[in-house]
Structure formats: structure tokens, C-alpha cells
């Protein structure tokens, strides 16, 4: 027995020693070793765009298939038989690969050869693999034990820190100690609310010596209404939110209620899967409420082209394409736009799959028309109560008719727009938007879904002296008369305006027509005896058919009340997504080379096979698509969301390329940490952003001092390994908003329409729309930057100067620049000077050195250094005499008229204003501490 034990122990010893000294040969990893070589050297000629020689390395079945030479270039297990390997070492430049490019290194050739020898096993890119639990890399068993007990010891405060510490150890780096209270508090305020703390908040935090003082402050800020405003600011870039439509006219748009929805969602801690479902498909939810309809304005932020002569269908398609690309970049971190014209050059997504996915979005009601319908009509409360009451009658008694009547009354849909018309005789589309017909003219509306409907609404203008006669015939101009309609003269909006120059609103009129089955070609002919040949008999904005009233209600006032509500003017509107009814459903073709002018075969709806293999539920519509995106089987949604949140807190994402987690994006600095956080966000925190953000800011990694050592400067110059706290420049919104807060001017009002703060004259030039920048009054001019009116063709100057985009398309990250223009902006912008003046007025009686000490403490919650204090005092003493000697300069600075009495303290106020302005421009002011 003893011998057996001895031999067993010896055997185990030999086994483990052998493992140590003769380890198993590690197999080649496709994702980390092979794919980067292929992407860099091969895929541009042998990928999704080009397949030179009939050889592609994008999909395994293609790579192992026959080339144009009728044989496979890769023979798994046999590099010596694989021309893919052999041609890497040929001497003939016409045969050697890569063709007319630098040759591969010997190491790269060995990797590829060994990979083929091992069977040319393909691998899936890390971001496309399903989420799974990741083990935390504790540095010792006792740290693991204490962590499990909820008693972290050492530097690490939660699991995040163990991942970070492991990477730092791997890179030969250390970490920084905890930031000073004032710096940490300001960092926390800026990250959670977008604002700096007040002097009182600095002092209260410093005096709170409880063990959980920091956590209490985190919880307090997460419950602040300013939390939603700060985080909504990030989402506005992704949603390409703007108050104008874009393109040439860039006319105004009323969509601010969508911004309010986003703010409210963040403040409510709405789960992220619910948040994205409402935005992608709120209209398809069971019994959607007003907020859920408004949420779909996420995809009505697309540009709308009102320019005369443009083709509505072209720009409707452009909007759909933008929705597809935005969905993939914002929610999936994938450069899906590449696939519009060809298969993805680097990732396994085929050209056809783009249009299969586009089919989910191609059936919405919008058609690039000037009124941006469909829109949610916001009635005053009494009118909305009538709408709800009327719809409730249908919902409770005839639920099958409910959605049809809701579409008609709440949204006035489905409209039939003038671009449906063809076969014009003496008529045309005016500006390609409105139907204009001269005397004796006619048009055809092809294949109109009549389906037995008998009530018609027409929106029209008739500027003539007499009514216009409209005759509608079935099938042809000689066909059966369906209706004879009188379009009465439209009254001018204002008195004293001459005929022919009237600025009309539309007239909405209802007409009874006989029931026609199915789809019908309707021919409309127009006549007006008072018209000259060159005049229009009428202009048609749109028309629509109302649902039939259920028989038991036909004798009631239901229809008359419905008509009255349909023609009632709402207080406002918000463009929304609304799914087409079945009779208006569109087919989706594949666009050859991405052009809508070259439609190919029709395709059905589906998600790319790369992801479909993990999901076994049907995805037939936008709602089911949104539900897939928030499901555990979607590998990207949680990773992308976590990466965005991390970037907001640390300045750079764990994957720096927020817009692309695919194979051409930059590699993650901490892949295991990203996967761990993505799993936790979805399964532990149930997609609740506040809970997840608290988890991150409670980590020691986040609370580190931002001071760096010489070692971290050399080994981690961009802080990718988090060797110190995040120190990055603030966003333009934060820079302006903190100045407003310090001055005491900042309005605390949350939500509402966009405002127009101070802006230099001449920034806007809107010859077509006639839009003007009208400076807001009262507190509205000092509202947070989130609410500043955003015109795509001319964004607010501070935003552009500090690297904001135009929001023509979604923007995943703002690439920070440092230019003299930024300092010139904050030093000279009237907004910052006004803030500095109001800030200086807080300390009118203090001596200049005391003023500087107090001012600095209010900004940063700590004492000013003697060097900075001396510099600011010198500056104060330099500028004070200049204004003491020159009253005119004082008047100009304070913007006083010559007859206004100049206060005796004016030079002192101006000098303090200029010192305050310098404080507002310090490096530590415009950077996160």
C-alpha cells in the first residue's frame, strides 16, 4: 500500500513537472493572431468588397471553396498544398502575395502556416460572441474571500479594481491613491449632473466624516433631476437631435418633447432594454401611451428635405438608410453602413443582409413630406379628453376598429400625399410637394386602398373667386363617377392681403363617397370657370379615407364628433414613427451598389446570420427586433452600452472606437473587464443605468487621483490602463453650464422647448426659411446648454468650437481637439463675460486678495496656491488703472449708454470681472479633476 502511494505521488510529481517544463503547444488563435494579419494585408483584395481570383477570406466556406483556378487556395491541415501559404514566399512579384505591397514578416507567415496546419479553424470576433460570466482575477485567495464577504481590503473596492489591478501588474504599472475630497466631489458632480458643486456643497462634503459620506453623495446626485439632463446630453448626439430638418432649407422642427422623454427616462432609471424598445418600436407596444409614441421620434430626427423639386421617395429612402445605420452604430457599435453598397469588408455580414434588416424600418408611414407626418397631435387637455372618450367607445365595443380610428383622430393617418399622383394632364406637383391642377386638368391616383370606406377628408387651398369642381372617376377619365365635390374658396389668413399673394392655411373638408372594394385607380379632374388658363384651380396638400363607423354607432353623433376632432388644431405636434396599415405595406428591394435607383430582388425581413444563430424566436416586425436587441442572446447591446457609459466617466471607452466594436475597431484595453461589466449590467443590474453607474463610481479605479507619475507617463501616456484618475477636458455643455452656475444665473427649469441664448449677430443666414435667432427673455437665456436651439446648418458656436458635431448623422464620440479658438471663445464670448461679471458681483466689498481666495474656493473647494494668487493679483492691479482712467472703456465694457450714471465702483467691478473670467479659463476649470 505504501509503495502504491509513493508511486502515485511520484507519478503526479512527474506529471506536474512535465507540465511546467514541457507545456502543451498552444494552438493558434484566429481572432487575436490570424484575423489581424488578414485584415491588414489580405482582406482589401480578398474580402467583402473585392474577391480577386474568386478568393475571399471573409467567410470560412468561401475561403475553403474553389477559386477561379478551380481549386481551393486553403487546404486545411496541409499548408504545403495551400497556394494561400505558398504564394506568400514566391519571388515573382506578379505572383507573390500580398500583391504589390510589403511582404509579410517571417513570424506572420509562420502563424498563418501553423493555422492552416491546425485545420484553418475559424473564430468569431470577441464582440460577436455571446455574453458569459467572467471570473474576477483576484490577486490572492484572501482578497477573494474578503470580497465575497463584502469586506474589500487593500486598494480594491469592488470587482472592477481587481481587473484593473491585474492589467496594471501585467504592464508593470501601479495605481494612484484616492483623490482629494474637493477634486473627487467636483469629478462626481460633473460626471453625474454635468455641473460643478457649490461652495456650500464643498464644505458639507468636507465636514461629513462618516464612513459612507461618498456613497451618500453618489445616491443624492443620482436622484437629482440634473442627472437626466447630463446623460441626455450624451444621447442627443447619438439620436442626432436637432430643432431643424437639415438639408438646404434646414427649416424648423418641433421635436423637443423627445428630448424631454430622454431626460425623464434617465431620471426614472428606466431599464436600457425598455429605453431602446420604446425608441425603436414604441408605436407597436400594446396600448402605447403618449410618452412611448414620442420615444419613436428617436428615428424621426432624420433629415427631411423640403427643397422644391426634390423627389420625396429618394429622401424617404435616405431617412430609412440613416435609421438602419444609426441603429447599428448607436446600439450595436457596428459599422453597418459599409454593407449598404457591398458585403462588409472585414466582418462577416453580407450585402443582402443589410436590406433584410432595412425591411424592418421600411414600412413606417413617413414619406419626406413638408408637414413631417405622421405626428402625435398634442391637444389641450379638454380636447384630449374628448379624443380619449371617443376612442374608448370603439376600444370597448369594437376593439378590431380601435387602431384605425386612433390613427385617424390622434394622428390624421394614413394620408395619401400628392406624390402618389401620376398621369398629369395640365397639372403638376408644385415643388414636387403639392398637387396643383389648372382648368380642365386631371391626375390619377393609382391603386388606392378603398376597402369600402365612404368618408373622405381633403386638405386643400383654393384662392379663386369661385369654388372649384372636383370630379372623381373610377378606372379612367371616362369611368364611373365616384364623387362630385365642391372645393370652396379659401379665405385669407390676414386681411389686407391681395388675392394671389395670400399666405393660406389649409382648408379641411369632409365628403361622402360611395363604397368601393379593394384597390382602385381614381382619376381626379378639376374645373373652375373663374380661373384663367395659367391659374391653379386648387392646390391639394393631402387626402385620406376615414374608417367606416360600426353600424350600431352610425345613428349616433360618433362620426360628427370624430370629424370635429380630426379638424381641431392641436397645441403642438411631434413627428413619430407609425407603422403602415397592411394595405399600405411596402416591399423592400435590395439596392444594387446601394443606390435606390437600382432596385434588385425583393427581400424578406431578418437579422444577419451572424446573430440569428443565437436567437430562436421569430423577428417579424420592429417590436420583435427591438426585443431581440435587449435580449440575452444579443452579444452587442450590453457591451456597447457599458462601453459608452465608461467613456462618459473615464474619457475613453474600454474600446476607444465607440462606433465600432467590430474587427476594424481598436482592441479593448480590458476585454475581460468589458465582458464582465456587460454581463453584470444585463443580469445583475437589470439594465438599470443608475445602478450600474453607481457601481462604477464606487470603484477605487474611478476615485483615483488624476496626478500621474513619471512611470505612468512613460508606460501609460493615454491612461488606457487607468494608472491614474480620469483627467479630460469638459464638454462644451459642461463648460458653459458651470459658468452659469457659478454666476448664479443658471435656470433650474427642467424640460420644455429649446431656447436661444446670447449669440453674435450674423451667425445665422437663412434666406429660404426666414428663420431668425431671437434671443430668449428672462431665465430662458440662462438655461442649460442641453436646451439651446440646435440648427444643423449653424450650430451654436461654443458647441462647434469645442468639437460637437452638426447632428446631421449620429455621433458616437467627440474627438477632442485643442485650438486657440477655444480659449478665444471662452475669454471673449459675451455669455462667459456676463457670467464672470455676475460672479464678481458676489464679492463687492472684499479686498482684492480676499476676493481671489473666496472666488477660487467657490470654484474648486480648496485654497488657492500662493503662485496662482500672486499671478491673479498682479493681473488685477494691471487692469484696474486702465479702467480707472477711462470712463468710456468702462461704459463699453458694462454696456451702458452715455446718459447712464457710471457707478464709482465700476473700475473695480470690471477688474474683478476680468479676474473671474481668467478663473473660468484656467486649465483646472475646463478639465475634469
From TrEMBL:
Disordered as annotated region, ranges: 706-725
Q: Which residues form the Cytochrome C Planctomycete-type domain?
A: 42-98
Q: Where is the DUF1549 domain?
A: 159-365
DUF1553 domain mapped to chain residues:
621-875
Family matches, as InterPro entries: Cyt_c_Planctomycete-type, DUF1549, DUF1553
Q: Origin, by domain of life?
A: Bacteria
Q: What is this protein called?
A: DUF1553 domain-containing protein
